[in-house]
Design goal:
By secondary structure, the chain is α/β, with parallel strands linked by helices. Helices cover 25% and strands 27% of the residues.
């Protein structure tokens, strides 16, 4: 039946798509709706109609899932930061595992059997050590609001606390509200510095301290199992992985374009008396050929921890051509990761041994993944050109 905006319909939810929206159907026409759970029957109002799908907002839950719980945050469904607070935590992990396996199978042509169960976070709430809030002038209310972008539009939801942030961050929010800026359009980055690490204000550091040891343990386990002697840490930031893995290899080098981050990486290594590595300020795609000639590929592991958009095609092609013994790919965006792994593994140049997801972002659609790739066997010394096909996940 044709759908129109403002139509009210009942849906049976049969899947939860990557991004957090539930999937229902009217005949064969897909309707996406947030804040629902697989197995629920819900009443929704159509808000957008496209050629192949529609979007709707939830009006009421007719038949709730037994895995539905009461959200801890009073702003949930209004604030756009969380998508899953209505879902029991064990079920969140199960849904995330399925979403990752689906993405890898569809976009990466990777067997879902390679994806391990998601490692849970010991603190599903109160874990974020960094957030960004905004100020915005609310004309109709004639007041300045401070908070996060809403789930349903680009306006700011006024908030006094954040339940997924560490309590000290919520105290910082109160301080900003008590000392508001003079106008809207101002962003505030609130963070708790990692103990023992020098991190510039705008440089990246993992935002979940409670699961960080498991992330290190995962990368270390993959690295040790390869038996390589040298490590090239690309997009190294303040040197976290290189420094944490320094005792596992004979030598390492970290590469990062952010020069302030490189200065901090050198300070962090010096503070730990680590002398078997160096940090280079450079664009990855420019310095990589030189680095991969410096070490024997058969004895080298490359760690990739790129931005959410993934790796440059030139970087992936260089890795295919030089074929280090191992590539460990760390990403918080499974879709771009699946795309890049598909390129690396094309024609058997690399083989995916395992993907380990870690729930670094409970209550949200996001999840961290670590992939262990090994150089394929019995291949010519230089891989031929590849066809990457359609780019997915951007």
């Amino acid at each position: 039946m044709p759908l129109k905006i403002a139509d009210k319909v009942s849906l049976n939810i049969h899947d939860l798509a990557f991004g957090g929206e539930g999937v229902g159907r009217i005949d064969d026409f897909v309707v996406f709706v947030p804040f629902v759970i697989v197995g629920e029957t819900v009443e929704v109002e159509i808000t957008e109609v496209k050629k192949n799908f529609a979007r709707a907002k939830l009006l009421r839950v007719i038949t709730p899932s037994p895995e539905r719980v009461t959200p801890e945050c009073r702003y949930f469904t209004q604030c756009g930061g969380c998508q899953y607070q209505h879902i029991e935590y064990a079920a969140q992990l199960r849904f995330k595992h399925k979403q990752i396996a689906d993405l890898f199978e569809r976009f990466g042509k990777i067997s879902r059997e390679a994806v391990a169960p998601v490692i849970p976070c010991p603190s599903p709430y109160g874990y974020r050590n960094r957030i960004m809030i905004r100020s915005q002038w609310n004309g109709p209310a004639k007041k300045l609001v401070i908070g996060f972008i809403r789930a349903d539009n680009n306006f700011v939801e006024d908030i006094e606390e954040c339940k997924i942030a560490e309590p000290a961050i919520s105290e910082q929010i109160k301080h900003v509200r008590a000392n508001p800026p003079p106008k809207g359009g101002i962003k505030f980055v609130l963070r708790i510095p990692p103990e023992g690490w020098d991190v510039p204000p705008d440089s990246f550091f993992q935002n979940n301290f409670s699961l960080l040891p498991k992330l290190v343990e995962t990368v270390r386990g993959f690295l040790k199992s390869s038996g390589t002697k040298h490590l090239v840490d690309l997009y190294c930031g303040v040197g976290f992985f290189g420094i944490e893995m320094a005792d596992t290899v004979e030598s390492f080098v970290g590469v990062e374009l952010d020069q302030l981050a490189i200065k901090s990486a050198r300070k962090n290594a010096e503070a730990r008396k680590i002398t078997n590595g160096e940090f280079i300020p450079a664009a990855v795609e420019e310095i990589l050929p030189e680095l991969l000639q410096k070490f024997s590929p058969a004895a080298t592991t490359v760690i990739l921890d790129p931005p959410r958009k993934g790796c440059w095609p030139e970087t992936l092609q260089l890795l295919r051509e030089t074929r280090p013994a191992q590539v460990i790919y760390v990403s918080c965006h499974p879709a771009t990761m699946a795309r890049d792994l598909n390129i690396l593994c094309a024609d058997g140049v690399f083989e995916l041994a395992r993907v380990q997801p870690l729930d670094m972002f409970p209550q949200t659609q996001h999840v961290e993944c670590v992939a262990d790739l090994r150089a394929g066997q019995n291949l010519p010394s230089r891989a031929g050109s590849i066809q990457t096909g359609e780019s997915h996940g951007n």
